[in-house]
Amino acid sequence: xxxxxxxxxxxxxxxxxxxxxxxxxxxxxxxxxxxxxxxxxxxxxxxxxxxxxxxxxxxxxxxxxxxxxxxxxxxxxxxxxxxxxxxxxxxxxxxxxxxxxxxxxxxxxxxxxxxxxxxxxxxxxxxxxxxxxxxxxxxxxxxxxxxxxxxxxxxxxxxxxxxxxxxxxxxxxxxxxxxxxxxxxxxxxxxxxxxxxxxxxxxxxxxxxxxxxxxxxxxxxxxxxxxxxxxx
Length: 232
Hints:
The chain is mainly alpha-helical. It has 10 helices and 2 strands, in the order αααααβααβααα. The protein has helices at 3-32, 36-59, 62-65, 71-93, 104-117, 135-144, 149-162, 178-198, 204-210, 212-227; strands at 128-129, 168-169. The chain has a two-stranded antiparallel ribbon with strand order 1-2. Helix 5 runs parallel beside helix 7 (149-162).
């Protein structure tokens, strides 16, 4: 393949990453239109793009063929909008937090910005350092579970604080339990898709069961960090 074609292919990967902004715009419209299910459907589309652009970027060597363009910076911009800004706007627009509890929302925005700007937010050995701004997931569960305003504000405040705690969070690339984490996350992803389709009609039992994977993820990450085994 010629140099020009490889360069064009690399730019296509960047365009695919940037398509997350289209999903973000559609999700934002849904927030303003008062359509919560549509919001999460578009955020789910953005999550799919984010989960799948990396393999293309590595396979097609985007850093080699577009050396003057930072795909990681683009990815962080898209992720901040989809994982932080829109979910927090959702929490405000749909009244997940109200009154004095809304003070936690700018705290989350700033804490997440801090997390995204840390050089070691993504470690060389395949972890995230500090809570990795999964606010889309947090808000999704708070909404489906009908959490009260102060409960929601407290949960958001706790996770905002965890951004600053140097716990190493598991990913599929982590050297510890990569296959188990991948399998469980795929099962969880299917469960979330079912919950998205049913949404407010989803059985509360299924919503609670689906929390087993986030609990596994948090519990295992904390255990490995505290025990020092996250470097194994």
